[in-house]
Amino acid sequence: MASQLQTINPTTEEPIASYPLMSEDEANKALEASHAAFLEWRLKSLEERAETIRAIGEELRSSRDEFAELMTREVGKLLKDSKQEIDLCAAICDFTADNGPKELADEEREIPGGTGVVTHAPIGLVYGIQPWNFPCYQVVRYAVANLMAGNGVLLKHAENCTGSGLYLRDLFERAGLPKNLFTVLLIDHDMSDKIIAHKLVRGVTLTGSDGAGRKVAQKAAEHLKKTVLELGSNDAYIVLDDADLDAAVKACATGRIYNNGQTCVNAKRFIVTEANYDAFVEKFTERMKGFEMGDPMEDSTRLGPMARDDLRDKLAKQVDESLQKGAKALCGGAVPDRKGAYYPATVLVDVQPGQPAYDDELFGPVASVIKAKDDEDAMRIANDSRYGLGGGIFSRDETRARKLASTYFDTGMVSINGFNIAIPNMPFGGVKDSGYGREHGGFGMKEFVNTKSIYMT
């Protein structure tokens, strides 16, 4: 068993740093220290918590360039994407500080013979298990909401962005967050199960694959711990008969390649009606060919490496299997002969059920284009997935598109005539195998609170 965590630059394949794993005793002491900090933090007023969170947002902006370079070194993100990620996280802090006191304020209701009070009390330590694709955002998304609610926060970050997790801890404390309230645990999966079981841990949130979600939810359920799961997806973007084709091609290509194609809400399946199929495929393939691979630190680069060699190899295997089962690659489709965890922008057609390109999440810059007979068939294919995180509809009739999105599209989020990742004032989350629970938009602040009834009679 490994005794340390190792970070490796996926662009150069060179080691960055190593970090010793915590012993069980060290991890338990860290939890106890975090719980002690929580006992003090929960007594702070909502306004006091909000001001600390606002200061975290300002510290993120002040540290933007340094932190962005670290993230790009660790996971291969385009440097400009790393900077945009930090901007989003600062905006999340602003939204939380502006809206948290109102969202979490006591509510009074009339009850027989008196007044009822609904209060949202913090519950304790919330344990987050987070992936590598957004080293800052994945943490800030749950941590800031729970700090606003008065909870303490534990983090097990992905091994390959351990440095980013520790950087955030130090950044939070520079901004004035009490020491130990946000604790980074340098642990392996076996120790993680013990953390879930620990009596001081009151809630668990995970962002990851549906397989990981099942394991974490099962372990948490053994100990009656609430969970929030944001899992994978195979998001469908539907190009209907009346779509603006040029706008659809541009948004779909951006949606597929964003973050080197490694985002849960990337556009992944492109379902195009017969009326537009041939023209879409031609224009879309040409646009995807323009995403040339390069150094993610360079401003001109449009496609960086994937985060790790093993992730690139898994994607290549999924593409190979899809090709063997009848799919056809119009561009890309093979591992390039170069240093780094690179995979080219790839367009697959003739995608059918039974192929990974249809059934599974391809977590990298590979697009699956599927032909539909008509608008109704396109919606059927879009919903023919075990996942349900995000998706998109392209149509000139926005009223009809809104109706399809709200009534028929079985996902947690839908973009109409565009592509979106996350917006602080809108809820984020999915259905089916994409998980449950919501973050952002004020919803995340109440996922791990004790909504308590007080009867004043």
UniProtKB/TrEMBL annotation:
EC numbers for this chain: 1.2.1.16, 1.2.1.20, 1.2.1.79
SUPFAM superfamilies assigned: ALDH-like (SSF53720)
Cell membrane in keyword set: no
Domain of life: Bacteria
CDD domains from the UniProt entry: ALDH_SSADH1_GabD1
Entry GO MF terms: aldehyde dehydrogenase [NAD(P)+] activity; glutarate-semialdehyde dehydrogenase (NADP+) activity; succinate-semialdehyde dehydrogenase (NAD+) activity; succinate-semialdehyde dehydrogenase (NADP+) activity
Protein keywords: NADP, Oxidoreductase
Enzyme class: oxidoreductase
Domain Aldehyde dehydrogenase, chain residue ranges per copy: 4-454
Family: Belongs to the aldehyde dehydrogenase family.
Record-given protein name: Succinate-semialdehyde dehydrogenase/glutarate-semialdehyde dehydrogenase
